[in-house]
Amino acid sequence: MEAQKPNPNQPAKANAKTNSGSNVSGIKNAFLVILACFVVAVLLFIFWFGHESHFEEGHPIDLWGTIYKGGFIVPILQTLFLTVIVLSVERWIAISSAKGKGSIEKFVAGVKKCLAANNIQGAKDLCKNQRGSVAAVVAAALVSYEEMDKNTILTKEQKIANLQKTVEEATALEMPALQQNLPIVATLTTLGTLVGLLGTVMGMIKSFQALAASGAPDSTELSTVSPRHLSIPHSVSQQVLSQLSLTTSTPTRSTISPTQSTRSASLSCRHSLQLTNSPITDILIKV
User: Which residues neighbour 80 within 8 Å (Cβ) at sequence distance 6 or greater?
Assistant: First the structure.
């Protein structure tokens, strides 16, 4: 019969069965957090920001009433803000629990001391007392090390490869629990910035609509005025030219300085422009 070849993956698989879960606790379903934050945001928007004590004759008198005037964008922004805060606190608690109960430095020093004394069981007991992600990875490595120490078939290189694979598998088992909900926090942060920009644009549109309703010039019409609408009426141009011809004519005996001539011409032009009722005259007079 042919001798059975040693399979270096068997200890790692057996060890993986012993570590079936992560030691890091946290919120598994972030959708429930988002839903709860949305309900809280809507209740705040209706019963606090929209309370009648923040308004006087329909106009806001404080910051809360002003925020209420923002419309339906406000509850959405509040939902994103509250969700990011809750998940951030949850991740902080979860990552803190990954360290374990005691100090990491003391734990590592105790494990090294036990291994130096060839006390593997004592190192395992330290991992059970410490808990956390670091202790779970070290415990998995100790179990694999104990199996490799008793194995007389595998070579030294195969034993080292099995130990490395065990550590990698234990680390990969802990990483999803450590990184849980972090992509959701990053997505909600980016989405909150975009929703805030959308609210700003909607506020600008409402402002222009209010200006148009109050009788102010329409910004759209002002931005699309063609040069032909800025032409000076024929009667105004004739009056301006006649005044210029009178003021620039050659004097007989009195000496008129160029400054006085220019000033009199400017005054004559303004006087002629004021005779008309065209809107363009007001612009030219201001200029």
Answer: 188, 191, 192, 195
56 phi and psi, to 5 degrees? Answer: -140, 110
d(CA 206, CA 229): 28
* Tens-place pLDDT, residues 170-216: 888 888 888 889 999 999 999 999 999 998 998 898 888 888 887 65
Q: Tokens at residue 114, please? A: 């036990």
Distance CA 9, CA 12 (A): 5
Residue from 175, 179, 144 nearest 160 by CA: 144
The first and second tokens of residue 160, run together, are: 């080292």
175 sits in which H/E element: helix 156-179
DSSP state of 287: -
Q: Which helix (H) or strand (E) holds 137?
A: helix 132-150
- CA gap 40, 130 in Å, rounded: 38
Distance, CA of 22 to CA of 133 (rounded, Å): 7
Q: Which residues pair with 60 in a beta bridge?
A: 55
CB within 8 Å of 26: residues ≥ 6 apart:
90, 91, 93, 94, 177, 180, 181
**Separation of alpha carbons 24 and 93, rounded Å:** 9
C-alpha distance from residue 162 to each of 133, 146, 153 (Å): 20, 12, 13
Question: Does the global pTM surpass 0.85?
Answer: no
